[in-house]
Fold this sequence. Notes:
Helices cover 25% and strands 24% of the residues. By secondary structure, the protein is of the alpha/beta class. It folds into 2 domains: 27-45 and 415-523, Golgi alpha-mannosidase II (Immunoglobulin-like, Sandwich), CATH 2.60.40.1180; 50-409, TIM Barrel (Alpha-Beta Barrel), CATH 3.20.20.
Amino acid sequence: MKLKIGVLCALLIISLATLPHTSLIFAQDAAPFRAELTVRADRPKGVINRNIYGQFAEHLGRLIYGGLWVGEDSPIPNTRGLRNDVVAALKELHIPVLRWPGGCFSDEYHWRDGIGPRDKRPRRPNASWGGVDTNAFGTHEFMDLCEMLGAEPYINGNLGSGTPQEMMEWVEYMTSDSDSTLARLRRQNGRDKPWKVPYFAVGNESWGCGGEMRPEYYADEYRRYATFIKDYSGNHIQKLAVGPHDDYYNWTEVLMSQAARQMQGLSLHYYTLPTGDWARKGSATQFGEGEWHATLVRTLRIEEFIAKHSAIMDKYDPQKRVGLMVDEWGTWYDPEPGKDMGALYQQNTLRDAVVAGLNLNIFNNHSDRVKMANIAQMVNVLQAMVLTDKDKMVLTPTYYVFRMYKVHQGATLIPVELSAPDYGMGQASIPSLNASASRDQDGKLHLSIVNLDPNRSAEITTRVTGSTVRSITGEVLTAPLMNAMNTFEHPNAIRPTQFSSYKIQDSQVTLSIPPKSVVVLELQ
């Protein structure tokens, strides 16, 4: 009998070893590493802008249609056509700002197509992402969604195929309280009171899908279009310019030198690809520790991009009046084979949660220059908060990170100092831990920590200067496997649990952070 059991165990180990994520199954026995963390509670910095926790909704795949909008006649419970379950879930995140209608789609979108009776709205091909857009979801529906979520609207205007007049008239339609023809048209279409539109971008990725422009040409076009974006009826618009993808020398230098006075923000787009190869990006769900490590290596490059953009921006804007707006970021993988869930649909695993925690910590720590960030995207597309399939909905690991991190919104940044061993594979090494901290308006101190190492827990000796820690509460998001995910069949496979792995002795705090985890704590 013992022999049979031994053979069975050996066969089980061999079979598990063939799975892409096997290294995680036996990793829990690895010895923990030790680290030191100092939270400088007596050295507060500036405020973390709430907009760092922004979202993005493009007319793409099943994000708008089916994900957010089902129509008023749908059997899926909805309010004025917007599905109740998704809106309720997103409200819990306290979304501060929502970007729309694109993305690449924005430079082919003409706002008049999306107003008036829905049965009379034109159907247009979606040249960027395929299919036909019915325009059932337009300006009024988007603004309604923002009001339901309590989010401020961030409109991305059409520079690529639009005109300055079209952009100017859209702003007037949305924000004017006058007796003008456009304000009357808005009232005729069901909205008496004008909306507030605090953010308006002039184009999207004008170096690529938005027109293949040179930075010098775009700078001229930006100044021309921005001139005609007017403030009406007490509304004040912050005008945002297109920033680079990875050309942080030439594009940023030209834009800041030639158009900084006409802008309040410069965008930055950065996506994490496990391979770094757009032709073969890698799988969202089938990966081993090599892909895990490579993904985190590439995620951490966002700090380099922020630092180098900031250095150029500081030359022309030392007062940091112009915000760096990371209005597209997140993971991007190959489409899942055998699944037709719409363009750019991808699953979301514990790896994505770790990526989200890293990015948000980095944005927090650079909040002197980073004033907005919008993860791509909100529902059913890329690194989404929510996945839907007809009437079913599931919350992703990334959703839970945003819910945990909302305590940092609008809080005062508290500097942290970390000393920990690196997590290395092959020739590449990265820090094993990443953290940020803040103090909210009620005086509560919050600490977020990401353990990048999938094999070892961290024993962190923690010191809080200027304060005494008496108790700790919080949540931890982790799972046995690197590719743990929530599915429609198993929607609660990964979700936060209560954090209790700490010791307080005299003035010393020891935190035990499990492998491959995201932790958010309140230090009292």
